[in-house]
Design brief:
With 298 residues, the chain is α+β, with helices and mostly antiparallel strands. It contains twelve helices and eight strands. The chain is 47% helix and 13% strand. The strands form two sheets. Strands 1, 2, 3, 4, 5 and 6 form a six-stranded antiparallel sheet that branches. The chain has a two-stranded antiparallel ribbon with strand order 7-8.
Length: 298
């Protein structure tokens, strides 16, 4: 791979650390990451354009390096690679990173149709189809999936109460996982254009089952993130939709995860539901939300 990098980018790494789909090296104290990606080429182009837009507004991310063909991607042995110049030292992502990034990106005033209704509806329809094909396979999934489909359907129904013309659209990320680092967060290949609530909701959901005090962080975020009323509603909707469960569900089905890993979620359903109730009532202090009988506390 060293010769390929040298040829396509006119740089000469002396030592390369290879791990899974990444090759990392340092040249003149600058850190680089050569990443194998399965993103469509048009998506890579879009991510490159987003990163250029951010740089023009002094919002820093890792820099996609163009190759000798002046493209942001390189095809080697039928595989696609992107070279990143690392602009920010690697560390574990914290909530303040998301707040600061959103504050700066919010000024870009971007626009895009939010497609959560169609995406989520199709996902639930497909999952229900898959469940009917299982037979006796995946007993833990069969035991738990109806609960999370119910949450999803509730989230989908609440989208009807959002005035999307007033929602802030900006640069967000495809997904934020537990253990997400700055190398992940500032990697332009993870950029998407979506509601400003996407990153924060996914961050909180990713940490829901490891941080017992997550509600304090959520209140802090709501109080200091300067969301408008429609953003607040959409934040609650995104918190309701159980991305974390469906991500794990897909990894169980494709064999990446053992089904038993889903127990970590199942065993914390009551705690998770309590947090959703608390978020609902906290946000309801600021905006009007429809009554949700299933979450009414006695």
């Amino acid at each position: 791979m060293k010769n390929m990098i040298s040829y396509y980018y006119n740089i000469n790494p002396t030592s390369i650390h290879h791990n899974a789909n990444t090759y990392k090296f340092v040249i003149n104290n600058d850190r680089y990451i050569f990443i194998k990606t399965d993103l469509p080429l048009e998506r890579i182009d879009e991510c490159y354009r987003i990163s250029i837009l951010l740089r023009k507004h002094n919002i820093y991310s890792h820099m996609i390096v163009l190759n000798i063909e002046n493209t942001p991607f390189t095809i080697i042995n039928n595989n696609c690679y992107v070279l990143l110049k690392v602009m920010i030292d690697d560390y574990l992502l914290i909530l303040e990173d998301i707040i600061n990034f959103n504050d700066r990106c919010k000024k870009l005033k971007m626009s895009k149709k939010i497609e959560w209704y169609d995406l989520w509806t199709k996902k639930i329809d497909y999952i229900e189809y898959q469940i009917n094909q299982f037979g006796k396979k995946y007993p833990l999934v069969r035991e738990s999936v109806d609960y999370f489909i119910g949450l999803s359907e509730m989230a989908i129904s609440l989208l009807n109460y959002i005035d999307f013309s007033k929602v802030n659209i900006t640069v967000q990320h495809k997904r934020i996982f537990n253990g997400y680092t700055s190398d992940d967060y500032y990697n332009p290949l993870n950029f998407v254009i979506d509601s400003i609530t996407r990153d924060s909701a996914e961050y909180f959901k990713a940490n829901m089952f490891i941080n017992r005090n997550i509600f304090d962080d959520i209140k802090y975020y709501i109080d200091y993130s300067d969301m408008n009323e429609e953003d607040l509603k959409l934040f609650f909707v995104r918190m309701l939709f159980p991305t974390y469960y469906f991500d794990m569900y897909e990894k169980v089905l494709d064999g990446t995860f053992d089904e038993k890993r889903i127990m970590k979620i199942i065993s914390n359903i009551d705690q998770y539901q309590d947090i959703l109730v608390d978020i609902y009532y906290y946000i309801k202090q600021y905006v009007e939300l429809p009554n949700i009988d299933w979450y009414q506390k006695m």
